[in-house]
Amino acid sequence: MIRFGGDYNPEQWPPHVWREDVALMRSAGISLVTVGVFSWSRLQPAEDRFDFAWLDEVLDLLHGNGIGVCLATPTASPPPWFTRAHPGAMPVTADGVRLTHGSRDTYCVNAPEYQEASNRIANELAARYGQHPALRLWHVHNEYGTTCYCDHCAPAFRRWLSHTYGEIGLVNEVWCTDFWSQRYGCFDEVLPPRATQYLSNPAHVLDYRRFSSDAMLTHYLAQRDILRPYGVPVTTNFVLGGWVPVDHARWAREVDVVAVDDYPESVEGHLAARAFVADLARGWAGGQPWMLMEHAPAAVRQADGVTRALPAGEARAAAETYVAGGASAVMYFQWRAGRGGAEQWHPAMVPLLSELAPIGRSLATRTPVRVESTRALIYDEQSMWAWQSPHLPTPFVDYTAITRRWHHAMGPPVDVLPIGAPLEGYSLVVAPALHMVPAALHKRLRSYVADGGTLVLTFGSGLTDEHSRTTPGAFDDLCGIRVARHRPGECGVRGVRDGRSGECGVCGVRDGRSGECGVRGVRDDRSGECGVGGVRDDHPSERGVGAKQHRPGEYGVWLDEIDPQDATVVLHSSEGRPLVTEHRYGRGLVRYVAADLPDPTPWARS
Ligand code: GLA
Ligand code: ZN
């Protein structure tokens, strides 16, 4: 069976609605609901008082109707009494502002009071429900991702550094602290990368993200180890996005089943975006089945803040996309929307059951697909973090968007792999804009090619080592080229910023990919046509393999000026610049794509 269901928040409704809910769930083929994600203030109304009566009733009701439960620990939202009793456990922003209760995810994972309170409620839930017959899965917390810079975090960061590097001299070396007089005399001098006068040290910021990821992992592991003895699998739901300081490839080793939430940023291309996430989740899961823990029912809440309904039939296509990528569960946020609260307008399943129920009924009779692919794409969240460093040759590189474009160009089936995954057995490996390449990965990529594989690298690959230190020419010998210079491509020249957070100075478009440019009429900077500037981004006539010349304006956000040494140039720009080269290395082949081509399809195939 492929499980079907969603987040269920019965505490937001009176008990007579629960009975209506389970009747509807039965008719809609719901087999699993996630309960309790944000229920802490109901489960523990005061520090010394617990109330499980309502949850007893809900779990019994679900079980009586044959519906399984994914039971969450509620630690993503500590209740108001906790905040009042432990104001020092509230997170502090990089600017030094201590946040207060009023939303969710407001805690410091390094605060001992928060850790104790989290473990206490997890223990209570485990003892009470660990043997409940409805229980199928434990769901620890929700979408880990809060970063804190407080005085609990500072010493914890120093301990992490000491554990990682052993002595401060090594920190100085890998952080290149001789730049701007940042050399540290001892660990006690190190602070979190709080607000400072000008640019922060990128290696410092990178290590703080790694530390934050490990600190949250410690919080997760404490709960997992409380819940595991009950014999039911334990997981947490991964949230994707540039702001998330979680190294999911590392975390994937600690969950019993990989679970991800997926919220595409626009209706346009949403199926391709979902296919990428499915392949990514399967990569984290080492090829095993994984769960789609949340997506929005029959809608996309776009990056521009508008919630758009999917065209008829596309809710099913969305579900099928996850299933084709190996999902063992297709779940939504949420079953029934609350009457109030910050997400009262978020789409919910109940009003859409005529469309969704047939999906659930069909999934109930199926088993997870086993995906076999001979082609892989490398996606590295830490490289994504590195692409957020200040003062890069251009700020316009959106690593995830570029990687997704290559994924789409490759066509299914593709395994999206973290950098540590084995590459043996793949005939083609594509690693777009892989900014940060540790020495061990350099070695593995070389062996992969030497042994007969085809590797595609692009501009922006191998710029730095894992400490953000530049590694000029790191791939030159492998690619048979010399990278002479990095320069921003045409997007930079036009002043169009391609990231979600960017602002276009020329036309005032805030989001180059999904926004609408009133002035220039450009809807999608990558695929559209700019009437005013006359810059064309789309070159259908040049798409075929073997095209010898590219048109101008084709460098996207980046162009590497390269001198081919032993490599063959297979694509030139009209200015005669080499854009794509190929080089035999050992028994294999390395293709280098020097510019941010809007359609890399011809170069994404073996
Ligand atoms: C996340 C959360 C949910 C809800 C949805 C809304 O995925 O886990 O609680 O906030 O987003 O899209
Ligand atoms: Zn903190």
Record keyword descriptors for this entry:
TIM Barrel, Rossmann fold, hydrolase, 21 strands, 30% helix, nine-stranded parallel β-sheet, eight-stranded mixed β-sheet
Description:
Strands 5-4-3-2-1-11-8-7-6 form a nine-stranded parallel β-sheet. Strands 13-12-14-15-21-20-19-17 form an eight-stranded mixed β-sheet, with helices on both faces. It has a two-stranded antiparallel sheet with strand order 9-10. Mean pLDDT is 90; it is low at 491-548. The protein has two domains: 3-144 and 215-363, Glycosidases (TIM Barrel, Alpha-Beta Barrel), CATH 3.20.20; 375-603, 3-Layer(aba) Sandwich (Rossmann fold), CATH 3.40.50. The protein has helices at residues 15-27, 40-43, 53-64, 80-85, 112-129, 153-165, 168-175, 202-227, 248-251, 270-284, 314-324, 353-363, 381-386, 399-410, 439-450, 476-479, 490-494; strands at 3-8, 32-35, 68-72, 135-139, 234-235, 237-238, 259-261, 290-294, 299-301, 307-309, 327-332, 375-378, 415-417, 428-431, 454-458, 481-488, 549-550, 558-564, 568-573, 578-585, 588-593. It is an alpha/beta fold. β19 (568-573) and β20 form a beta hairpin. The structure holds alpha-D-galactopyranose and zinc ion. The site of zinc ion has 7 residues, from loops. GO terms for molecular function: beta-galactosidase activity; metal ion binding.
